[in-house]
Each structure stands twice: as structure tokens, then as C-alpha cells.
Amino acid sequence: MERILIIGAAGQLGSELTLALTSQYGGENVIATDINPKALEKFDYCKTAVLDIMDHDATRQLVKNENVKQIYHLAAVLSATGEKNPLFAWGLNMDSLLFILELAKQEKLDKIYWPSSIAVFGPNTPKVNTPQYCVKEPNTVYGISKQAGERWCEYYFQKFGVDVRSLRYPGLIGYKSLPGGGTTDYAVDIYHKAIAGEHFISFLREDSFLPMMYMPDAIKGTLDLMHAPKEQVKIRSSYNLSAISFSPKEIYESIKIHHPDFRISYEPDFRQAIADSWPDSIDDTRAREDWGWKHEYDLKKMTEDILSNLPAYLV
Ligand code: AKB
């Protein structure tokens, strides 16, 4: 049986993608891996393995022994954490991607998925409806690593035929796991504070707009891209992908409708400069044209869904 390996499965995206892949391929054929053994305990429905992606030998052995044919490589240091330890972030983000691309080439793997991000854009990029192709001068180590990673993905596709596919995710918002060091993660934390009846302090200004997406849309987009016939995947760096765009004030107001006593204050920190360097909104025409991308959730629908489901997750 050909298996799917998920690297960094216990993170925000991996937690939900692993479940979706398991329902499509069956628990026997999905291997969730993470560096943290405790974090793997929640995956009682598929195969698991403790894996440090920097351990090339162990990763290669796992791929060979388990007959892995597809890899979702999700492990990365995100934007805010990356700024605290730039060389570590660069080392992990780049070394792991290059190793996986090389492994895919050597072992003739079927498909690789690697997430890119709106962080590839920078202060000189057009901010509104940011096009697929435009100036990209990222000024975070995370953004620089995603931009370089995109070039490597296209290189491995063009030179060696590695079928690697990628999306430039906006801020992803889910309630099934806690945020992991991103600039957009305030939009996850705010729901937790509202449910707990606590005051929320936003580390971004009230009018700081960023592109965002509810997790079910992100999962659907990822699987649609991975299931698309090869010839429809015409962009091999990474596709712009868009759903909603809002500010801290707007998400707060959407929550306040359901929690009238909820309070917010604004104390921008170093993450404001990161947000200021990213687009307000994204043009994802190519994803819509090439393989039929369509989002479902707007801010109102996402807030209703999170507020009705999050409490059950917290008990
Ligand atoms: C982050 O904020 O670092 C991530 C991203 C936009 O890639 N969520």
C-alpha cells in the first residue's frame, strides 16, 4: 500500500489536514509525524511516528520502510517566532524543504505538498488585490525562506520533474489547535479569549487589514490542489489563495454580536511591522481558473461556526 507522510502533523494546519487525509485514504495509509511525542497522542485514528525533520537518515528510512509516496511537509518556524531566532528559522525552513525535494527526486515520490505564505510579499508589493506575479521583497526571515522555497519548488519541478504543489496561505484560522508563533494568530487567540470571558489585547492596530482564511476552506483548497490533474497545476512556485480580509476591529465586532460584554484594547508590538509589510488582500484568479478554487466562509459565517464549536473543544 502506498502511504502519505505528514511532517509537522501536530501544528495548526497539520492537525486538521491529517484528519481530512485519513478520511480520504484510511488511517492505515496516513502517517502523522511530529518532533513532539506528546503532541502525537491525539492521532489515535492513523499511524504515527516521532520524527525530527532535521534527521535526514531517519526521514529517509521512514519513507522507504513505509512505502511513502506522498509527503505533506508542513514543519516550519513561522513569522513572529522566526524574527526571534533568524538563523535557526532559516536553517530549519530551508534545509528541510531542500532535503524533501531531493528525497522526492531520488526516491521518485508521486507528489509533495509544501505550504508557502503571503509572507513572500513585502513592503514594495502592491497592497490591495496583490497579483500572482509582482515585486516580492520580503523582510522577515520566514518570508525570505518561503520566497526562496518557492524558487526551489519550481526548480525541482522544471529540472527533475518533481510533482511539488504549493499554496500561499493567508492567515489560517481554526479552533482545533492553538496558534504557533504567527503574526495572523491574533485572529485565533481572540476567539479563545471571548469564550473564556477575558479581555483581549490585540498586538495589531485596530485598522490593520490582513488576508485570512477559515481552516475548512484551507483544507479544501489544499486537497483540491493535490487532487488536480497534473496538467492543471500550471504554477509550480506557489498559488495565491484568498478568502476573506479583515482588521482586528472587524473580527472583534463580529464576535461582540454573540458576546456583548467582550472587550478589546490595542497594544501593537513588533508584529505590527510584519503585518504592515504584508498585503491587505490577495488576487487569486489563477487558482480559481486553473483548478477551480472557491472559498465558502466569510467573516460572519466563520465566527458563528467557531463560537458554536470551540467550547466543546476546550472541555
Ligand atoms: C504567520 O502569521 O506567520 C503565518 C502566515 C501568514 O504564514 N500565519
TrEMBL record:
**InterPro entries membership:** Epimerase_deHydtase (IPR001509), NAD(P)-bd_dom_sf (IPR036291), NAD(P)_epim/dehydratase (IPR051225)
Origin: domain of life: Bacteria
What are the NAD-dependent epimerase/dehydratase domain coordinates in residue numbering? 4-232
The record's annotation in Pfam families points to: Epimerase
The record ties this protein, via PANTHER family, to: L-THREONINE 3-DEHYDROGENASE, L-THREONINE 3-DEHYDROGENASE, MITOCHONDRIAL
**Which family does the UniProt entry place this protein in?**
Belongs to the NAD(P)-dependent epimerase/dehydratase family.
Protein name in the entry: NAD-dependent epimerase/dehydratase family protein
Q: Which organism is it from?
A: Belliella alkalica
Its lineage reads: Bacteria, Pseudomonadati, Bacteroidota, Cytophagia, Cytophagales
